[in-house]
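Protein modeling request. Please complete all fields; requests missing the sequence field cannot be processed.
Requester role: graduate student
Desired output: 3D structure, token encoding
Chains: 1
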Amino acid sequence: MKPRISVHKFSSCDGCQLAFINAGEALLELATLVDIVHFAEAGPVDPDAPVDIAFVEGSISTQDEALRIRRLRETTRYLISLGACATAGGLQALRNFNARGVEDWSHAVYARPEFIESLDTATAIARHVKVDLELWGCPVSTRQVFAAIRRLLYGALPFVDNEKVCQECKRRGITCTLVTRGIPCLGPVTRTGCGALCPAFGRDCYGCFGPGENPNAAAMARRFQGLGLLPEEINRRFHFINSHAPDFLEEGLAWREDRP
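Delivered output (260 residues):
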């Protein structure tokens, strides 16, 4: 009997699900090795089916989602969170910094806020249930996803790549935007996975794959200050896509007001 796989969406933009669809022929090959029992964006719909591996995209932003993720955990052997929304709350987690809560921002954004059913916060999957593996990125890469599937299918633990974007730049011979151009790049504290895409085109990394291994976010912030960034600009650098990844959250909060 083939292993059963499902792909689920919570509060998100669907971008991480495209890591499957963009795989093209590799996805067709995968379908010969496993049964994909639920993947609404690609066709099959059976959200309550028990599975061996469940991939989850998106943050938990509503009460219904909080209930759904608990039901999914009960029927899943391995639960894998996909992308920044699922691992750190994503962009929608920026609302967590609004102390006045959901009523304040919903009235500012929506013409009919009375129809909005939302929790006060948007949070990572791991804040609600046990997660067996986190794949970071905005969006995740197809290579990450399929490498994790292959290793799980053959009984091996997935390899989690925590090295920094800077190391990827060195291997590819990409000129450092921070050192040579003085651009405030988050590459020294951000994990790789994107292939150093932004630095390859001469722009700074903005941390979409979250903190790398042993990130020295405080030193990075001081370097940004030396480049002339104001405290609120440094805060925004860390409080962006992965604002609630612990290292980025802590350092961003430290720059909400100027240090002495």
